[in-house]
């Protein structure tokens, strides 16, 4: 796919309208089951956690409950550690890493922190193994009030009462080869722009917040994950996916300004993980383990850090 090979939908240079979006949506096929993969796993945790719905999505008669998993003995005097996964439904280890963390370590912080996990923000996209929702909207550019993404709007509403109380928010993602072969070309076509090829980094990396950089926090997460899987090197320009590397395996984005999930709460410590599942050096289980290692390291750092004065 390059600038000389037009995307299969739309007219080069012309943004999509309703007809093109409808054509794109008609080509999205269910490839896995949210109920079997995610809801069943969450249901198995009911004796150990408080599980509650925070909304429902209804897409052409397909209904998806949105579920959050919380510390069973929630205490208002404790800091909140927030984990989100599946903002992009196709990024598998974001969902299954969050579920694995809950199963194996979610109860480790009793009496020290409240843990809140939203394992699958985008269930329709999870089933289609896609980045967008059925309206061809990327939730991870739309986490704001009045969002056109139902997935993003529901999560913003869930977290609004916790603003100022979330100490750490880690958002679990992947960078895949399909970003370059499908999703970025589709984005360019949708927006009527030329597609300019990029490079997919081989390995794990993090996205810090340009407006609130926490380099020591990012480094602690990188060091923990490096014991599980390899860290992505910068390219020949010193960049990772087009952004300057500010430390080994770390780049920065303006999280809130870009409408990214990790910018919702105003937490002191924020990061977005990026696992590379298509690497010949990584297995699916290793990807899940990397996400779990990142979550545990992020919580450990936040708990050990001195309080702000």
Automatic annotation (TrEMBL):
GO molecular function: hydrolase activity, acting on ester bonds; metallocarboxypeptidase activity; zinc ion binding
Active-site residue list: 274 (proton donor/acceptor)
Keyword tags: Carboxypeptidase, Hydrolase, Metal-binding, Protease, Zinc
Organism domain of life: Bacteria
GO biological process terms, semicolon-separated: proteolysis
Names of the cofactor(s): Zn(2+)
Domain Peptidase M14 residue range list: 30-302
Family the UniProt entry places it in: Belongs to the peptidase M14 family.
Protein name: M14 family metallocarboxypeptidase
UniProt organism field: Luteibacter yeojuensis
